[in-house]
Amino acid sequence: MSQGNTAVTDEVSTIDPAKLDMCTVLEVLNRISGKWAIGILLEASRGPVRFTELERSVAGISRRMLTLTLRNLERDGLLERTIYPTVPPRVEYQATPMARELYDTLSGLVGWAERHREEIAVAREVYDTK
Predict the structure, then answer these.
(1) DSSP secondary structure of the chain
(2) Domains defined for the chain, CATH in brackets
(3) 70: burial class by Cβ within 10 Å (0-12, 13-18, 19+)?
(4) Is the pLDDT of residue 11 over 60?
(5) Which of 34, 43, 46, 112 has its CA 20 to 30 A from that of 8?
């Protein structure tokens, strides 16, 4: 997202507040259901974690995508970033209380996916053969 155009237009004031609330909810759900966010939040909920540890634990994520996802999760108040004044600087990420509240839901979702992985694979095969 470009930070160059941050002006708010007059149109925003004419949006129905209920629709604006729904947009915010959908935006948050899209953020946490993104390809990388769940893995990052699960790791950060276990305790402080460094960038390189996240890079290793979240399989397939690029450095750029990890950086962007961390920034967005921090912006949404789900991660706290702590910078230690060492040489080189040490940076740790930790889940906020709000993210730890979300942890149970995410863990449940991951557990559900693991329990039903085979059933879903079978259903896909059946569907694809039709």
Answers:
(1) --SS--PPPGGGGGS-HHHHHHHHHHHHHHHHTSTTHHHHHHHHHTS-EEHHHHHHHSTT--HHHHHHHHHHHHHTTSEEEEEE--SS-EEEEEE-HHHHHHHHHHHHHHHHHHHTHHHHHHHHHHHHH-
(2) 15-129 (1.10.10.10)
(3) buried
(4) no
(5) 34
* CA pair distance 8, 25, nearest whole angstrom: 20
pLDDT of residue 14: 61
User: Average pLDDT of 23-42?
Assistant: 84
What's the full length of the chain, in residues?
130
The β-bridge relationship of strands 90-95 and 49-50 is antiparallel
Token digits for 127?
């569907």
pLDDT tier for residue 110 given thresholds of 50, 70 and 90: confident
Report how far residue 104's alpha carbon sits from residue 101's, in angstroms, rounded to the nearest whole number.
Answer: 6
Distance CA 67, CA 62 (A): 9
